[in-house]
Specification:
Blueprint lengths: L2 E5 L5 H13 L4 E5 L2 H9 L5 E8 L3 E2 L1 H9 L3 E9 L3 E4 L10 E4 L1 H6 L1 H6 L4 E4 L3 H11 L4 E5 L1 H7 L2 E4 L9 E8 L15 E10 L4 H10 L5 E8 L6 E9 L5 H13 L2 E9 L16 H4 L29 E3 L2 E3 L5 E5 L6 H13 L4 E3 L17 H14 L3 E4 L3 H10 L2 E4 L7 H8 L5 E4 L6 H13 L5 E5 L17 H8 L4 E3 L1 H5 L2 H14 L3 E5 L17 H12 L16
Parallel strand pairs: 1-2, 1-3, 7-8, 7-9, 18-19, 18-25, 19-20, 20-21, 21-22, 22-23, 23-24, 24-25
Antiparallel strand pairs: 3-4, 3-11, 5-11, 6-9, 6-10, 12-14, 12-15, 13-14, 16-17
Bound molecules: phosphoenolpyruvate (PEP) and manganese (II) ion.
Manganese (II) ion binds next to loops.
Amino acid sequence: MTIGVYQGVEGAHSQLVLAHYLRALGDDGGGFGVPAYRQLATALIAQRAGVGVLPIETAIGGTVREAYDVVAEFELAPYAEIAWRTDHRLLGVRGAALAGVREVLAHPLVLAECGHFLAGLRDARAIPCEDTGIAAREVARGGNPAVAALAPAAAAAIYDLDELARNCADDPATYTRFLVVGPPGSAAPHARGEGSRRKTSLIFAVEERVGSLAAALGALANRGINGDRLDSKPHLGHGTERLFYVDFDGDVADANVAAALHDLRAICKQTVVIGSYDAHAGAPIGAPADAPPPRSAAVRERAPRAPSANGSPFPRVARTANPLGSVVRVGGLTVGDGSFTIVAGPCSVESREQIVATAQAVAARGAAMLRGGAFKPRTSPYAFQGLGWDGVELLAEAGRASGLPTVSEVMSIDQVERMAARIDVLQIGARNMQNFDLLRAVGRSGRPVLLKRGFAATIDEMLAAAEYILAEGNPNVILCERGIRTFEPATRNTLDLSAVPVLRERSHLPVFVDPSHGVGVSRWVAPLCRAAKAVGAHGLLLEVHPNPSEAKSDKEQALTFDEFAQVVDELERIPLPDAPRAHPGAWR
Ligand code: PEP
Ligand code: MN
């Protein structure tokens, strides 16, 4: 049974990595935390612990030089590198609410990795502290619902905390590299995997002058050795020398590595070999099996294969794929099951007062979901562009307060993951209906998607766009007719209600209508709501504002609360039409 040591307290990522390493050894040992890396080294040297775990590189903060320095100074033996997905969650005391958080405690590197999330938390101050476990422990000890910590999910269980938000990192792929080390001169207790890649870490010093770094790196390159990471800092007390931290492929026992190190010693002022260890293989530990691949790879990914042909150009979306029609679930709500769903709210979230008042008003008058744009696709760059992440938080808050699930538009791939963590349904706007990379990204988001028809898109082009989302494994798509551009200028767009029966015949997906953007004039919205229900739509998307004349976007088409109430009343009198009958040409 091995006793391990890590920096921090229970719930710190280092502790989780240690537990993982020991588990993989089949060792049911445990570990203890120490406040500093040096104490970790002395615990190993004094044989109070058999292995230690240190973070050596974070995705945003870069090299943790102090950890490398301690390994080098105490001549600890590196065993293995472990890439660990640092899944940052916001944890608060039981019953705390995200909207009430005023202070967020976290390790400074974690604060850096969650910059966007923190910027979106109104009125909350970021407070650096020594480590993630300590942050969680302090929150639990304080018992104050206004104080939360960014920490891994495991810390919530250890300290009995509630999870207030997940996926808080700016980049969902964020991970940290840890080094498992042992006492000086010791050998790793784990068996080396067959064909496992070895890595070596080194610190060298060179004079700051033209070509000195190139010469040092050339010593590796000349022997065909691949460098993996390079970082530097001034060599204090040594004039203009700089210290370079480099990791490269290979083991000091390899002949080419030994030769390269010989060359390096001749070139460099100082060379400290930290040692060779097993490189991490595969994706970071803890990355969800369905995690999106790194962004750069996502766009170049192989196209998904079409399912066995049913003759349709959009086989997953075609009615034949689900002749009874699909039901999309949004939280406890069902869409497309024969009920009629009204989604209402402002074009743009403008303020807490505006969105909370609208949420309450539309909830009381029969809306099933709350809409609100935070990222607005505006024709003019000078028009109101939306409140961004602040708007998303306000919409989420209003949704929670009113009990309504929320819908908001995502305009770019990098908004998808974070929006999916806050909002129930991701809207793809008309202007993005054929933004295929964005369609793929929402297809992997795990959230239902409201796909609006492009204003110059045919019905089949809309279905093909939906196919992109389904092809990524997301079956929860609601199609939304919102008007197309024709020669007719009397209305904002021409609301193509004929698309409803056509879409219902060609596809099993629920179909909504958005008369607000369709006609663009509030007094014509009501009759088109009735028509949409009569023609077979499964629901409506409606713009409602407490004071339309003051709306920051689409003021001409917004309904007042009273007008909305009247629309809902009138709709009660329109019966739901029968489901479309099977049609021989329905494969399309
Ligand atoms: C909206 O719903 O506010 C919107 C921008 O819609 P569309 O993409 O249909 O123009
Ligand atoms: Mn609008």
